[in-house]
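To: structure subgroup
Subject: Chain for Friday's discussion

All,

I'm putting the inputs and outputs inline so they're searchable in the archive.
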Amino acid sequence: MTVEQAPAGGVAEFGEKIWSQLLHLAELLESEGQLRGLVGPREMDKLWSRHILNSLAIIDFIPEGAKLADVGSGAGFPGLVTAIVRPDLDVHLIDSLGRRTDWLEYAVDNIGLSNVTIYNKRAEELHGKLVVDVVTARAVAALKKLIPYTLPLVKSGGQLVALKGSRAEIEVDESVKQLNKFNVDWVDIHDVDVWGTDEGTRVVVLQKL
């Protein structure tokens, strides 16, 4: 198994504490990720570029001090990475599979994060109970399915910030009915160059009325 090495320059980019926490996350995923069924063996050679660094694409779209929910957190992309890089945020990680939330709790404890709350629930179970400024999601569902899961968690004036790929425009076009039903004011699609890798990504931002 080949494991992708961390890029150079992390301390200069993030500071020593945050970079050491990202390295710690990578080490935990290397030792535990496959055992826990979180990351496949063929994904380890892209652990940084496709997963950890890719998660950073959303960072600049999240306001200072925001309360954030990550739906379908899985191995921690992007929610756990976001909690590390943005200690100013109040981060709520949501996943319906117990083995994933067990992992998230293990990782949060090992890394020493104090800004994370974890829910072993489906997002719909938290509708009316959890209200946040921003919801994030990566590789959970197409937008037309993702919107009904996530927008009820977002306060008026808040946003859904979703990591998407080449089909972003198509997904937006296919979700017109849901955009109207869930009071979306506007949608922007951003092409983002991600630090530390030449693999760019796309971020879809939906603003709720």
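Points worth raising on Friday:
The first helix runs from residue 10 to 14.
Strands lie at 67-71, 90-95, 116-120, 132-138, 154-164, 184-192, 201-208.

D.
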